Amino acid sequence: MRGLGASVLALLSSSAMALDYQNCGHTWQLPQERPQRILALNQHAADLLLALDAGPALAAVSYIDDDAQALTSGRYRGVPLLSRRYPATEVVYAQGYDLLVGGFASAFRDRDGVAPRTTLQANGIASYLLENACAPAPGNGFAAIEQDLRSLGHLLQREARASQLITRQRQDLATAKTIAGHSPPLSVFYLDSEVNGLQSEGKRGFITQLIDAAGGRNLYAEVELNRVTVDAERLLRADPDVIILADAVWSPAAGKRAYLRQHPALSHLRAVRDDRLIDLPFSHIVPGEHSARTALTLARQLLALKQQRP
After folding, report:
1. Nearest Cα to 295, choosing from 215, 233, 188?
2. CA atoms within a 13 Å half-sphere pointing along the CA-CB vector of 149
3. Does residue 136 have a cis peptide bond before it, meaning omega lies within 30 degrees of 0?
4. Of 1, 73, 154, 282, whose CB neighbour count within 10 A is largest?
5. What is the pLDDT of residues 156-192, one digit of tens each?
6. What is the pLDDT of residues 225-243, one digit of tens each?
7. What are phi and psi of 206, to 5 degrees?
8. pTM here?
């Protein structure tokens, strides 16, 4: 009976230490009151945790988007790189992680991700998906980033730091708005990839909100889609003022720039001809703690380009 009583007390103690949290419209549970071994799935998820001063609790990172040095050194901003892409489920279990933070829904897919979140929960591993990757997608991407900062700040017991980051985000967005002013926005085409058509984003893509916050207008902001594929003829007719080139290890901005300049038709676009091309790291294009700073930087770049116009 004494052994049974000890087991019951241990179970009650463990249950009391568990922490419930909201994410993607559902209630989840962290087995203990604070995570000890976190795996960040996707670079921008790691960036958010590092901004929150996760410290040694951030044990590893998987899936680097735009830092070639990290792929060579095996470390991202000092944190060990577990794998170039999503790790196998058995690897995650063997490493003893207690919290997985994903930047994209694909991180928790059964087929090519780690494992479904419910499966991980059943095996004692908590998970968190950045709110902008939830379904349905939130209407305000920047508000969703604030929610991520609050939620993960709470899990990490870094609430004060989360508040600082939220304040900074709001200040950066306000400054970007001031810089943009009230002049007509420049039309901006976002080029995600030049393989299999010109890949871009429409109204549901976060890039639309990012460009808007910087005082520009996404060329395809009226298209009710996340992903948009356009052909050269369609882009030529639109002839955007500016083109943003995503820079990723698997799709470098330099390659896109060369493609546009060498293309027999696209080389005649005003943005290409006048070198109104802006490179942005892929991890700064997707929503994260750096998004407001990216909007501010982009606002300054767009203003400079406006001032160059005859």
Report:
1. 215
2. 26
3. yes
4. 282
5. 999 999 999 999 999 999 999 999 998 899 999 999 9
6. 999 999 999 999 999 999 9
7. -65, -25
8. 0.92
Residue reference for tokens 């009226």: 222
Q: Residue 126 — pLDDT band, cuts 50, 70, 90?
A: very high
The token pair that represents 196 in the structure block: 């299999």
Please return the burial class of 89, using the count of CB atoms within 10 Å of its CB with bins 0-12, 13-18 and 19+: middle
- Beta strand pairing status for 58-62 and 38-41? parallel
137 exposure class (CB count in 10 Å sphere: 0-12, 13-18, 19+)? middle
Structure tokens at 160: 């004060």
Q: ∠68-55-77 over CA atoms, to 5°? A: 15
Q: Which two tokens stand for residue 104?
A: 């994209």
Enumerate the β-bridge partners of residue 20: 29
What domains does the chain contain, in order, with CATH numbers? 18-157 (3.40.50.1980), 181-308 (3.40.50.1980)
**Which residue reads 């996404």 in tokens?**
218
